[in-house]
Design goal:
Elements: H1 2-19, H2 25-28, H3 45-48, H4 76-99, H5 102-107, H6 114-135, H7 155-176, H8 183-207, H9 224-230, E1 258-259, E2 271-275, E3 292-297, E4 300-305, E5 312-314, E6 324-330, E7 341-349
Antiparallel strand pairs: 1-2, 2-5, 3-4, 3-6, 6-7
The chain binds 2-acetamido-2-deoxy-beta-D-glucopyranose (7 copies).
One 2-acetamido-2-deoxy-beta-D-glucopyranose (NAG) binds next to loops.
Signal peptide: 1-21
Protein name: Stress response protein rds1p
Keywords: Signal
């Protein structure tokens, strides 16, 4: 049994080499063993792996099916959703490593260390993928990566996207704590959000020459799956491996929210004309219902009028120009329940604000 399976494994390896293709489905099952591969917090691999080829576990492309029968663990669904998000984020950094090199960033005017830092962040994100996959119990499927498209060609666009990815992930990690059952899961989510905050602070200092600080508190947005939903635009349609869990669960499939170019500076007090960028998923506004633009920042939310004919509103003048704002269209002031949200969220980055206003 053992020798025939290792024989099969070497045949599979040969094919993988010939095709430059992903490993066979069976090979991913070894990921159920928490002792396989570099161990986060023991190995420095998830900081120091310097290769350009995908680090572990990014060198596996098939889901890990349940190795035991029984009910799912209490936070399996949360970690399946989070792993789905993490695979997109890890691949965003692997894409950066594949697409650019040290001189590409230097020629664009960024520090010589930029490429190395992107490699390190890529390694941290691979570590997150390993941690989240391990947090899923053996009675549930561990999702694999899909293929992703980022539509980015320039270093500046890439670094701007990095800043958005990091601060948005801080927000959905915070929101996921509200779904967690186990206290140990909540603590793990905080610890990972802290790592994303370090990545964000690096970019603010080294890339944008700004203060690394974003005010006394980052943004809490309670409907984390709505942020996860917005990341589906990066998934190449039909590219997820068979057997992957749907991502995310549950999904409201809300209309995507954006804004008309040049309609706003996005600074507090600026007028804003929203837009619904997906022609296949447009909102319908009931004539007898009043709709609102609800903005979240720090621990607050502020509700502004929303004109359902012109899509116009205003960025709350009360907010400080720091960190992250999230905006949704809702049919109730304050969007107090998840079902009151009708479109969005829109991620608005205030540091540097040029990221959103099309200057970069
Ligand atoms: C899950 O399965 C793997 C591989 O069979 C095993 O190494 C691991 O100990 C199992 N985990 C738990 C918590 O039982
Ligand atoms: C990775 O590469 C960078 C820059 O090329 C170097 O400073 C660093 O020491 C390398 N790390 C390892 C672990 O080799
Ligand atoms: C993936 O990388 C890990 C760590 O280097 C290694 O142990 C494993 O054999 C690799 N697997 C594949 C399929 O490349
Ligand atoms: C970086 O990439 C550019 C083009 O993408 C290439 O011309 C250049 O030789 C590369 N530099 C290094 C150091 O690999
Ligand atoms: C909108 O912004 C573009 C640059 O992104 C600029 O060329 C154009 O003139 C602006 N249009 C208006 C109406 O301000
Ligand atoms: C709006 O309310 C009016 C008066 O109550 C009613 O006649 C009309 O059918 C309602 N329209 C919709 C779309 O519900
Ligand atoms: C927004 O703020 C209001 C007033 O403080 C609160 O009642 C409401 O629950 C908040 N909305 C969310 C989604 O937290």
């Amino acid at each position: 049994m053992r020798s025939s399976s290792s024989c099969l494994a070497s045949v599979a390896l040969l094919f993988a080499e010939i095709l430059h293709a992903a490993p066979t489905p069976q090979s991913s099952e070894i990921l159920a063993n928490p002792d396989f591969g570099p161990i986060p917090a023991e190995s420095s691999y998830y900081s120091n792996y310097n290769g350009t080829s995908p680090p572990f576990p990014g060198n596996y492309t098939q889901p890990v099916f349940p190795t035991e029968s029984g009910p799912p663990g209490p936070d399996d669904l949360l970690f399946q959703n989070l792993a789905g998000a993490e695979w997109a984020i890890y691949n965003f950094y692997q894409f950066g490593v594949d697409t650019f090199n040290e001189s590409a960033f230097v020629e664009a005017g960024y520090p010589a260390s930029t490429y190395q830092r992107i490699i390190e962040i890529r390694d941290n994100e691979a570590g997150h993928a390993r941690i989240f996959e391990e947090a899923i119990s053996n009675t549930s499927t561990r999702p694999a990566q899909c293929k992703y498209q980022f539509g980015i060609t320039s270093p500046v666009a890439y670094l701007a996207a990095h800043t958005v990815v990091e601060i948005a992930s801080m927000a959905f990690l915070t929101g996921l704590i509200l779904q967690a059952t186990l206290d140990s899961s909540k603590a793990a989510l905080v610890a990972v959000a802290e790592t994303e905050a370090r990545h964000e602070a690096w970019g603010l200092i080294e890339i944008w020459n700004q203060s690394p600080f974003g005010g006394p508190v980052d943004t809490v947005f309670p409907y984390a799956n709505q942020i996860l939903d917005t990341t589906k635009v990066f998934v190449v349609p039909n590219s997820c491996p068979a057997g992957n869990p749907t991502y995310p669960i549950p999904s409201q499939n809300l209309p995507a929210l954006s804004y008309a170019e040049n309609s706003t500076t996005l600074l507090p007090g600026s007028p804003i004309t929203f837009a619904f960028s997906n022609p296949a998923n447009q909102p319908t506004f009931d004539a007898n219902t009043t709709y609102y633009a609800v903005f979240f920042h720090g621990l607050l939310n502020i509700t502004e009028p929303f004109n359902t004919k012109t899509y116009s509103s205003i960025v709350p003048p009360e907010f400080e120009a720091k960190g992250l704002f999230l905006a949704v269209i809702a049919d109730t002031p304050g969007a107090p329940t998840i079902d009151t949200v009708k479109a969005g969220p829109l991620v608005i980055v205030e540091q540097p604000v040029e990221i959103n206003s099309g200057i970069l």
